[in-house]
Amino acid sequence: MKIGVLALQGDFEEHIGMLTQLGIQAEEVRLANQLDLLDGLIIPGGESTTIGKLAVDFGLLKPIQDFGQDHPIWGTCAGAILLSKETHRSQPLLGLMDITVERNAFGRQLDSFEADLEMGPPLDTSESSDPYHAIFIRAPIIESVQKDARALLTLPDGRIIAAQQRHLLATSFHPELTNDDRFHRYFVTLIEKPKA
Amino acid sequence: MEQQTGTFAVKKGLAQMLKGGVIMDVVTPAHAKIAEEAGACAVMALERVPADIRAQGGVARMSDPDLIQGIMETVSIPVMAKCRIGHFVEAQLLESLGVDYIDESEVLTPADEEHHIYKHDFKVPFVCGCRNLGEALRRIGEGAAMIRTKGEAGTGDVVEAVRHARTVLGEIRRLQNMPDEELMAYAKNIGAPFQLVKETKELGRMPVVNFAAGGVATPADAALMMQLGVDGVFVGSGIFKSGNPAKRASAIVKAVTHYNDPSVLVEVSRNLGEAMVGINVSGMADEDRIADRGW
Predict the structure, then answer these.
(1) Which chain B residue is nearest to residue A49, measuring alpha carbons?
(2) pTM passes above 0.95
(3) Residue B235: pLDDT above 60?
(4) Contact (CB<8Å) A50/B77
(5) Mean pLDDT, consecutive 10-residue segments, chain A of 196 residues?
(6) pLDDT score for A186
(7) Cα–Cα dist B13/B139, whole Å
(8) Of the residues A71, A167, A174, A184, which is catalytic?
(9) Dihedral, B171, B175, B177, B182 alpha carbons, nearest 10
(10) Is the pLDDT assigned to residue B276 strictly greater than 90?
(11) Chain B: residue nearest A91 by CA?
């Protein structure tokens, strides 16, 4: 299995480090032809406006949209913004997931935070799942999910911070900044699943 | 659910989101907009770019809060702002304003020639300059969550940026080959906290994100710093002191992404207009050097 990590800007090295630890071959993707032969793609954290602009300038939007029709893609933070259909701002998006995202929903950097989240199935199927320690950096929230997109994790107040639509995954926080590989393993199960 | 803000992981985490990107000096909201549209991953709000601070002289201080706020309201990307070395009250003002990062910067006139700010006291993260590994680890010891090699700001001459990056990265390479019993003496010699020396050896890199700064004026300069091994690039005077800031800014952003691909670098380097004129650092008087400020 080979997973690409979009390496236009952001913390792509951290994702590659996590995948490598799981024994998965990981490759940096900067140009469209590097999508060939990949089984899945991660769009990392970073600045969504920067990544979006570079994706447009180097002709990556359409190739990633095509790739996402039948390959799993996971976006963390900026990556989740790029996967969304709507952000209430004018910026290039992939629009692959039927979710609406609010950028910087918690505020500026002073409001960035860490918190323990309750994890249950399908993210963690073990009997006594440990809380998931999540890091939110100027994080977005997933304001709403439409069509067959569904909320995967919510804050106690109901706000959505992870969503899935078939083989597409969006998280507003950064599993790649932790040592907890449960999200990366969950993404791998989406790749292993026979296509519906 | 308990939310912990201002933790070191969160401070360091924002710098991790900036990796592979370009942080641009801006003095007005209009500049900030140009920088954002060009693909900057953050902007640094300041009163005058370093080249003008050099040319005009006088005491360089933190910017007017109104100006910084105007920039914060104009762009959606993170906004950094500079305070003077050791001027913890300027830092308190910037924190109260809600900037995303503070640069305790040698580009401004130092307020304290002996002590830097104790940055652990703040919830807002700090970036600090360094010329070598010892200086970098002292700043991290004081709480800096991001480091930039200093270079020589406002010159458009990349030579010092290269010197400082090579020094830091070379020291880390040598440290990786050092047996553990030599680490304490090494820490003593470079004046760095032992635990951070040990951590740097184990990680094989600095424990926080490390950008290059001070003299980057062209896409090739930016790619050079990236190939040397830094995580991203600050560009100060190089953009808004050039003939076509929007085009040059966008070209430098592309060069940092494709730093290892000469076929892309040559394309983005075409027809950028005049580069900033610049000053040769080798012909510069010692008292004009900014990098020697701080320790």
Answers:
(1) B39
(2) yes
(3) yes
(4) yes
(5) 98 98 98 97 98 98 98 98 96 97 97 92 82 96 98 94 98 97 96 73
(6) 96
(7) 17
(8) A174
(9) 130
(10) no
(11) B37
Mutate to test the interface with B, among A30, A47, A180 (most CBs of B within 10 A): A47
Rounded to an integer, what is the distance from CA B281 to the centroid of its chain?
A: 19
Q: Cβ separation of B19 and A46 shorter than 8 Å?
A: yes
Catalytic residue flag (residue B19): no
Domains of chain A: 2-192 (3.40.50.880)
Q: Does A54 sit within 8 Å of B254, measured CB to CB? A: yes
Residue carrying structure tokens 């969006």: A170
Look at A117 and B1 and tell me if their CB atoms are within 8 Å. Answer: yes
Q: Which residue has the tokens 């032809």?
A: A33
- CB-closest option in B1, B5, B99 to A112: B5
Average pLDDT of the segment spanning B198-222? 97
Beta bridge partners of B212: B149, B233
In this prediction, residue B277 carries a pLDDT of 82
Q: What is the pLDDT, as a whole number, of residue B41?
A: 98
Select from A109, A113, A141, A173 the residue whose CB has the most chain B CBs within 10 Å, as the one to mutate to test that interface. Answer: A109
On whether the CB atoms of residues B62 and B103 are closer than 8 A, the answer is no
